[in-house]
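[step 3/7] fold_predict: job queued, chain A
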Amino acid sequence: MATLDNLPVLSDSQRNRSNAVKKLVVSSIQNSKNGVIGFDEFMEIVLYTESLGYYDAGDEIFGKDGDFLTAPSSGQLFGECVANELGPVLDSLDCNILEFGAGGGDLAKSVCSALDEFHSYSYHIIEPNESLWVDQKTATKDLSGGFFWHKTLPRDLSKGVLIANEVLDAMPATRYLVDKGTVHELGVALSDQELVWKEKSTDVPEQIKRVLKGYEDGYRTEMINGLEPWLNSIFSSVEELVFFIIDYGYPDSEFFREDRLDGTLRCYFKHTVLNDPFQLLGLQDITTSVNFSTVADIAAGIGFDILGFTTQERFLVNNKIEEIFVRSNSDDPVENYLLAQEAKRLLLPTEMGQYIKVMALGKNFSGHLRGFVNDESGRL
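[step 4/7] structure written:
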Protein backbone atom coordinates (compact mmCIF):
# COMPACT_ATOMS: atom_id res chain seq x y z
CA MET A 1 0.00 0.00 0.00
CA ALA A 2 1.19 3.50 -0.81
CA THR A 3 1.36 6.49 1.52
CA LEU A 4 0.65 10.14 0.92
CA ASP A 5 4.39 10.76 0.53
CA ASN A 6 4.37 8.74 -2.72
CA LEU A 7 1.44 10.59 -4.30
CA PRO A 8 1.17 13.74 -6.43
CA VAL A 9 1.06 17.06 -4.59
CA LEU A 10 -2.50 18.28 -4.12
CA SER A 11 -3.61 21.59 -5.55
CA ASP A 12 -5.06 24.29 -3.30
CA SER A 13 -8.54 23.62 -4.66
CA GLN A 14 -8.21 19.91 -3.90
CA ARG A 15 -7.07 20.63 -0.35
CA ASN A 16 -9.91 23.10 0.18
CA ARG A 17 -12.51 20.65 -1.10
CA SER A 18 -11.11 17.81 0.99
CA ASN A 19 -11.17 20.05 4.08
CA ALA A 20 -14.79 20.98 3.33
CA VAL A 21 -15.72 17.29 3.10
CA LYS A 22 -13.96 16.60 6.39
CA LYS A 23 -15.97 19.36 8.07
CA LEU A 24 -19.17 17.64 6.93
CA VAL A 25 -17.98 14.32 8.35
CA VAL A 26 -16.92 15.92 11.64
CA SER A 27 -20.27 17.71 11.93
CA SER A 28 -22.12 14.45 11.34
CA ILE A 29 -20.05 12.72 14.05
CA GLN A 30 -20.57 15.54 16.53
CA ASN A 31 -24.32 15.43 15.96
CA SER A 32 -24.53 11.65 16.21
CA LYS A 33 -25.46 9.49 19.16
CA ASN A 34 -22.33 8.61 21.18
CA GLY A 35 -20.09 10.49 18.72
CA VAL A 36 -19.82 7.72 16.13
CA ILE A 37 -21.38 7.31 12.68
CA GLY A 38 -21.66 4.20 10.54
CA PHE A 39 -19.12 3.64 7.79
CA ASP A 40 -22.03 3.67 5.35
CA GLU A 41 -22.92 7.23 6.41
CA PHE A 42 -19.25 8.20 6.07
CA MET A 43 -19.15 6.77 2.53
CA GLU A 44 -22.35 8.61 1.61
CA ILE A 45 -20.83 11.94 2.66
CA VAL A 46 -17.38 11.59 1.09
CA LEU A 47 -18.54 10.00 -2.16
CA TYR A 48 -21.90 11.57 -2.90
CA THR A 49 -22.26 15.01 -1.28
CA GLU A 50 -23.42 17.40 -3.98
CA SER A 51 -20.56 19.36 -5.61
CA LEU A 52 -18.04 18.11 -3.01
CA GLY A 53 -18.15 14.33 -2.92
CA TYR A 54 -15.88 12.16 -5.01
CA TYR A 55 -18.50 11.30 -7.62
CA ASP A 56 -20.14 14.72 -7.81
CA ALA A 57 -17.26 17.21 -7.84
CA GLY A 58 -16.53 17.05 -11.56
CA ASP A 59 -12.94 15.79 -11.28
CA GLU A 60 -11.61 13.25 -13.78
CA ILE A 61 -12.18 9.83 -12.24
CA PHE A 62 -12.06 7.14 -14.92
CA GLY A 63 -9.34 6.08 -17.34
CA LYS A 64 -5.60 6.63 -17.49
CA ASP A 65 -5.87 10.29 -16.43
CA GLY A 66 -8.21 9.51 -13.54
CA ASP A 67 -7.89 7.25 -10.51
CA PHE A 68 -8.66 3.81 -11.88
CA LEU A 69 -9.42 1.86 -15.03
CA THR A 70 -12.73 0.10 -15.58
CA ALA A 71 -13.19 -2.61 -18.20
CA PRO A 72 -15.01 -0.19 -20.58
CA SER A 73 -12.38 2.51 -20.17
CA SER A 74 -9.68 0.01 -21.16
CA GLY A 75 -10.80 0.06 -24.80
CA GLN A 76 -13.41 -1.39 -27.17
CA LEU A 77 -13.08 -5.15 -26.52
CA PHE A 78 -15.25 -5.27 -23.41
CA GLY A 79 -18.08 -3.21 -24.90
CA GLU A 80 -18.15 -5.26 -28.11
CA CYS A 81 -18.47 -8.47 -26.08
CA VAL A 82 -21.31 -6.96 -24.05
CA ALA A 83 -22.95 -5.92 -27.32
CA ASN A 84 -22.74 -9.53 -28.54
CA GLU A 85 -24.71 -10.55 -25.45
CA LEU A 86 -27.21 -7.71 -25.60
CA GLY A 87 -28.12 -7.95 -29.29
CA PRO A 88 -30.21 -11.15 -29.13
CA VAL A 89 -31.87 -9.99 -25.90
CA LEU A 90 -32.86 -6.68 -27.49
CA ASP A 91 -34.42 -8.57 -30.39
CA SER A 92 -36.17 -11.03 -28.09
CA LEU A 93 -37.71 -8.40 -25.81
CA ASP A 94 -37.96 -5.63 -28.44
CA CYS A 95 -36.78 -3.19 -25.79
CA ASN A 96 -34.27 -0.48 -24.87
CA ILE A 97 -31.02 -0.44 -22.89
CA LEU A 98 -30.76 1.12 -19.43
CA GLU A 99 -27.36 1.62 -17.79
CA PHE A 100 -26.92 2.50 -14.14
CA GLY A 101 -23.94 4.72 -13.28
CA ALA A 102 -22.41 5.02 -16.75
CA GLY A 103 -19.14 6.56 -15.54
CA GLY A 104 -17.39 8.38 -18.38
CA GLY A 105 -19.76 6.95 -20.99
CA ASP A 106 -17.23 4.43 -22.36
CA LEU A 107 -19.52 1.41 -22.17
CA ALA A 108 -22.42 3.26 -23.79
CA LYS A 109 -20.13 4.38 -26.60
CA SER A 110 -18.59 0.97 -27.34
CA VAL A 111 -21.85 -0.98 -26.98
CA CYS A 112 -23.81 1.38 -29.21
CA SER A 113 -21.00 1.53 -31.79
CA ALA A 114 -21.13 -2.27 -32.06
CA LEU A 115 -24.94 -2.52 -32.14
CA ASP A 116 -25.67 0.52 -34.28
CA GLU A 117 -26.14 -1.18 -37.65
CA PHE A 118 -28.22 -4.11 -36.48
CA HIS A 119 -30.70 -3.07 -33.81
CA SER A 120 -33.23 -0.35 -33.10
CA TYR A 121 -33.31 0.88 -29.51
CA SER A 122 -32.78 3.89 -27.27
CA TYR A 123 -30.16 4.11 -24.54
CA HIS A 124 -31.13 5.40 -21.10
CA ILE A 125 -28.45 6.37 -18.57
CA ILE A 126 -29.53 6.46 -14.94
CA GLU A 127 -26.98 8.75 -13.31
CA PRO A 128 -27.78 10.70 -10.12
CA ASN A 129 -24.57 12.74 -10.37
CA GLU A 130 -25.26 15.33 -13.06
CA SER A 131 -21.60 16.36 -13.14
CA LEU A 132 -20.92 13.06 -14.96
CA TRP A 133 -23.53 13.77 -17.64
CA VAL A 134 -21.11 16.09 -19.44
CA ASP A 135 -18.54 13.33 -20.07
CA GLN A 136 -21.25 10.83 -20.95
CA LYS A 137 -22.81 13.19 -23.49
CA THR A 138 -19.40 13.94 -24.98
CA ALA A 139 -18.64 10.22 -25.34
CA THR A 140 -21.91 9.51 -27.16
CA LYS A 141 -22.37 12.72 -29.17
CA ASP A 142 -21.33 11.23 -32.53
CA LEU A 143 -23.53 8.14 -32.24
CA SER A 144 -26.91 7.83 -33.90
CA GLY A 145 -29.99 6.82 -31.93
CA GLY A 146 -31.68 8.27 -28.92
CA PHE A 147 -29.81 8.85 -25.66
CA PHE A 148 -31.66 9.91 -22.53
CA TRP A 149 -30.46 10.84 -19.04
CA HIS A 150 -32.32 10.28 -15.77
CA LYS A 151 -31.41 10.86 -12.13
CA THR A 152 -33.56 7.88 -11.09
CA LEU A 153 -35.01 4.83 -12.82
CA PRO A 154 -37.75 5.98 -15.23
CA ARG A 155 -41.19 4.55 -14.42
CA ASP A 156 -42.59 4.49 -17.96
CA LEU A 157 -40.41 1.69 -19.38
CA SER A 158 -42.20 -1.66 -19.23
CA LYS A 159 -39.24 -3.73 -20.42
CA GLY A 160 -35.52 -3.40 -20.96
CA VAL A 161 -31.98 -4.72 -20.84
CA LEU A 162 -30.32 -3.28 -17.75
CA ILE A 163 -26.60 -2.96 -17.01
CA ALA A 164 -24.81 -2.08 -13.77
CA ASN A 165 -21.05 -2.14 -14.37
CA GLU A 166 -19.01 -1.43 -11.22
CA VAL A 167 -21.99 0.20 -9.53
CA LEU A 168 -22.67 -2.00 -6.51
CA ASP A 169 -19.10 -1.77 -5.20
CA ALA A 170 -19.51 2.01 -4.81
CA MET A 171 -22.69 1.73 -2.73
CA PRO A 172 -22.32 2.70 0.95
CA ALA A 173 -21.36 -0.30 3.08
CA THR A 174 -21.40 -1.12 6.76
CA ARG A 175 -18.23 -2.50 8.31
CA TYR A 176 -17.97 -5.19 11.02
CA LEU A 177 -15.27 -6.32 13.43
CA VAL A 178 -14.79 -9.48 15.47
CA ASP A 179 -13.65 -8.48 18.97
CA LYS A 180 -13.39 -10.86 21.91
CA GLY A 181 -15.48 -13.42 20.10
CA THR A 182 -18.31 -10.97 19.42
CA VAL A 183 -19.19 -9.19 16.19
CA HIS A 184 -19.55 -5.38 16.38
CA GLU A 185 -20.35 -2.73 13.82
CA LEU A 186 -17.27 -0.63 13.14
CA GLY A 187 -18.04 3.06 12.83
CA VAL A 188 -16.17 6.34 12.39
CA ALA A 189 -15.38 8.70 15.29
CA LEU A 190 -13.06 11.56 16.24
CA SER A 191 -9.89 11.45 18.32
CA ASP A 192 -7.91 14.69 18.66
CA GLN A 193 -9.78 15.97 15.59
CA GLU A 194 -8.62 13.00 13.51
CA LEU A 195 -10.97 10.36 12.10
CA VAL A 196 -10.60 6.92 13.66
CA TRP A 197 -12.37 3.57 13.69
CA LYS A 198 -14.62 2.96 16.70
CA GLU A 199 -17.10 0.28 17.64
CA LYS A 200 -20.71 1.40 17.18
CA SER A 201 -23.52 0.21 19.42
CA THR A 202 -26.04 -1.21 16.95
CA ASP A 203 -27.71 -4.52 16.23
CA VAL A 204 -25.54 -6.66 13.96
CA PRO A 205 -27.44 -8.59 11.26
CA GLU A 206 -27.94 -12.25 12.14
CA GLN A 207 -26.36 -13.29 8.84
CA ILE A 208 -23.09 -11.55 9.75
CA LYS A 209 -23.07 -12.94 13.29
CA ARG A 210 -23.73 -16.45 11.99
CA VAL A 211 -21.06 -16.33 9.29
CA LEU A 212 -18.36 -14.84 11.54
CA LYS A 213 -18.97 -17.13 14.52
CA GLY A 214 -15.63 -18.55 15.58
CA TYR A 215 -13.52 -16.17 13.45
CA GLU A 216 -10.40 -14.76 15.09
CA ASP A 217 -10.37 -11.39 16.83
CA GLY A 218 -9.53 -8.49 14.55
CA TYR A 219 -11.29 -9.98 11.51
CA ARG A 220 -13.13 -7.30 9.51
CA THR A 221 -15.68 -7.49 6.73
CA GLU A 222 -18.29 -5.36 4.98
CA MET A 223 -21.89 -5.52 3.87
CA ILE A 224 -23.27 -3.28 1.12
CA ASN A 225 -26.45 -1.56 2.24
CA GLY A 226 -29.42 -0.63 0.13
CA LEU A 227 -29.35 -3.68 -2.15
CA GLU A 228 -32.84 -4.90 -1.28
CA PRO A 229 -34.74 -1.62 -1.82
CA TRP A 230 -32.72 -0.94 -4.98
CA LEU A 231 -33.44 -4.36 -6.50
CA ASN A 232 -37.05 -4.16 -5.32
CA SER A 233 -37.56 -0.84 -7.11
CA ILE A 234 -36.18 -2.32 -10.34
CA PHE A 235 -38.33 -5.45 -10.10
CA SER A 236 -41.50 -3.47 -9.43
CA SER A 237 -40.81 -0.93 -12.20
CA VAL A 238 -40.01 -3.18 -15.18
CA GLU A 239 -42.24 -6.06 -16.29
CA GLU A 240 -39.83 -7.81 -18.65
CA LEU A 241 -36.09 -7.52 -18.17
CA VAL A 242 -32.63 -8.98 -18.21
CA PHE A 243 -30.29 -7.29 -15.75
CA PHE A 244 -26.50 -7.70 -16.01
CA ILE A 245 -24.53 -6.94 -12.84
CA ILE A 246 -20.77 -6.74 -13.46
CA ASP A 247 -18.49 -6.04 -10.51
CA TYR A 248 -15.58 -6.98 -8.30
CA GLY A 249 -16.75 -9.61 -5.88
CA TYR A 250 -17.03 -13.17 -4.65
CA PRO A 251 -19.54 -15.82 -3.64
CA ASP A 252 -19.98 -16.41 0.10
CA SER A 253 -17.26 -19.05 0.43
CA GLU A 254 -14.61 -16.67 -0.94
CA PHE A 255 -15.98 -13.41 0.44
CA PHE A 256 -15.68 -14.64 4.04
CA ARG A 257 -12.41 -16.52 3.68
CA GLU A 258 -10.75 -16.73 7.08
CA ASP A 259 -7.50 -15.30 5.73
CA ARG A 260 -9.31 -12.21 4.35
CA LEU A 261 -8.58 -10.54 7.68
CA ASP A 262 -9.10 -6.92 6.66
CA GLY A 263 -12.16 -7.44 4.48
CA THR A 264 -12.44 -6.04 0.97
CA LEU A 265 -12.21 -2.28 1.58
CA ARG A 266 -10.02 -0.50 -1.01
CA CYS A 267 -9.28 3.15 -1.87
CA TYR A 268 -7.95 4.46 -5.20
CA PHE A 269 -6.17 7.70 -6.05
CA LYS A 270 -4.24 8.23 -9.30
CA HIS A 271 -4.06 4.47 -9.97
CA THR A 272 -2.60 3.84 -6.53
CA VAL A 273 -4.27 1.53 -4.00
CA LEU A 274 -4.47 3.02 -0.51
CA ASN A 275 -5.67 1.42 2.71
CA ASP A 276 -6.84 4.47 4.65
CA PRO A 277 -10.33 5.81 3.84
CA PHE A 278 -9.79 8.73 6.26
CA GLN A 279 -7.27 10.54 4.04
CA LEU A 280 -7.91 12.44 0.79
CA LEU A 281 -11.57 12.86 1.75
CA GLY A 282 -13.65 13.45 -1.36
CA LEU A 283 -10.57 12.98 -3.55
CA GLN A 284 -10.13 9.20 -3.51
CA ASP A 285 -12.51 6.44 -4.47
CA ILE A 286 -13.69 4.11 -1.69
CA THR A 287 -15.04 0.71 -2.62
CA THR A 288 -15.92 -2.67 -1.13
CA SER A 289 -16.37 -5.93 -3.03
CA VAL A 290 -19.78 -7.42 -3.80
CA ASN A 291 -21.01 -10.56 -2.07
CA PHE A 292 -22.77 -12.14 -5.03
CA SER A 293 -24.36 -14.84 -2.84
CA THR A 294 -26.12 -12.08 -0.91
CA VAL A 295 -27.20 -10.39 -4.16
CA ALA A 296 -28.60 -13.72 -5.42
CA ASP A 297 -30.47 -14.41 -2.17
CA ILE A 298 -32.03 -10.94 -2.12
CA ALA A 299 -32.89 -11.04 -5.82
CA ALA A 300 -34.47 -14.49 -5.64
CA GLY A 301 -36.45 -13.46 -2.56
CA ILE A 302 -37.87 -10.50 -4.48
CA GLY A 303 -38.85 -12.68 -7.43
CA PHE A 304 -35.97 -12.40 -9.93
CA ASP A 305 -34.75 -15.45 -11.79
CA ILE A 306 -30.99 -16.04 -11.51
CA LEU A 307 -30.12 -16.48 -15.19
CA GLY A 308 -26.39 -16.95 -14.78
CA PHE A 309 -23.20 -16.26 -12.85
CA THR A 310 -19.62 -16.51 -14.06
CA THR A 311 -16.25 -14.78 -14.14
CA GLN A 312 -15.58 -11.87 -16.49
CA GLU A 313 -13.04 -14.02 -18.32
CA ARG A 314 -15.60 -16.75 -19.13
CA PHE A 315 -18.28 -14.19 -20.02
CA LEU A 316 -15.99 -12.45 -22.51
CA VAL A 317 -14.68 -15.68 -24.05
CA ASN A 318 -18.26 -16.92 -24.49
CA ASN A 319 -19.09 -13.63 -26.21
CA LYS A 320 -16.29 -14.05 -28.78
CA ILE A 321 -13.54 -11.81 -27.45
CA GLU A 322 -10.97 -13.89 -29.35
CA GLU A 323 -12.73 -13.25 -32.67
CA ILE A 324 -13.07 -9.54 -31.87
CA PHE A 325 -9.38 -9.38 -30.93
CA VAL A 326 -8.26 -10.95 -34.21
CA ARG A 327 -10.58 -8.73 -36.23
CA SER A 328 -9.32 -5.62 -34.41
CA ASN A 329 -5.65 -6.21 -35.20
CA SER A 330 -4.19 -3.67 -37.63
CA ASP A 331 -0.95 -2.92 -39.46
CA ASP A 332 0.13 -0.62 -36.64
CA PRO A 333 2.37 -2.50 -34.15
CA VAL A 334 1.75 0.09 -31.42
CA GLU A 335 -2.02 -0.28 -31.72
CA ASN A 336 -1.68 -4.07 -31.68
CA TYR A 337 0.47 -3.92 -28.55
CA LEU A 338 -2.11 -1.75 -26.77
CA LEU A 339 -4.87 -4.11 -27.88
CA ALA A 340 -2.95 -7.07 -26.46
CA GLN A 341 -2.46 -5.25 -23.16
CA GLU A 342 -6.17 -4.48 -23.06
CA ALA A 343 -7.04 -8.16 -23.61
CA LYS A 344 -4.64 -9.25 -20.87
CA ARG A 345 -6.14 -6.74 -18.44
CA LEU A 346 -9.64 -8.04 -19.14
CA LEU A 347 -8.86 -11.77 -19.12
CA LEU A 348 -5.89 -12.61 -16.89
CA PRO A 349 -6.71 -14.11 -13.45
CA THR A 350 -4.31 -11.66 -11.81
CA GLU A 351 -6.08 -8.70 -13.46
CA MET A 352 -9.85 -8.39 -14.02
CA GLY A 353 -10.49 -11.87 -15.43
CA GLN A 354 -11.25 -13.67 -12.17
CA TYR A 355 -11.80 -10.81 -9.74
CA ILE A 356 -14.74 -9.38 -11.68
CA LYS A 357 -17.90 -11.49 -11.87
CA VAL A 358 -20.95 -11.23 -14.08
CA MET A 359 -24.47 -12.06 -12.88
CA ALA A 360 -27.67 -11.97 -14.93
CA LEU A 361 -31.07 -11.53 -13.31
CA GLY A 362 -34.31 -11.92 -15.22
CA LYS A 363 -38.01 -11.26 -15.03
CA ASN A 364 -40.39 -12.83 -17.54
CA PHE A 365 -37.48 -13.77 -19.81
CA SER A 366 -36.95 -17.28 -21.17
CA GLY A 367 -34.31 -16.63 -23.83
CA HIS A 368 -30.73 -17.84 -24.06
CA LEU A 369 -27.68 -15.96 -22.77
CA ARG A 370 -24.44 -17.01 -24.46
CA GLY A 371 -22.19 -15.54 -21.79
CA PHE A 372 -23.19 -18.17 -19.22
CA VAL A 373 -22.55 -21.38 -21.15
CA ASN A 374 -20.33 -22.37 -18.22
CA ASP A 375 -22.82 -21.18 -15.59
CA GLU A 376 -21.36 -21.15 -12.06
CA SER A 377 -24.56 -20.29 -10.17
CA GLY A 378 -23.94 -23.41 -8.07
CA ARG A 379 -21.14 -21.51 -6.32
CA LEU A 380 -23.53 -18.90 -4.93
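[step 5/7] annotate
The CA atoms of residues 1 and 238 lie 43 Å apart.
The longest helix spans residues 12-30.
exit 0
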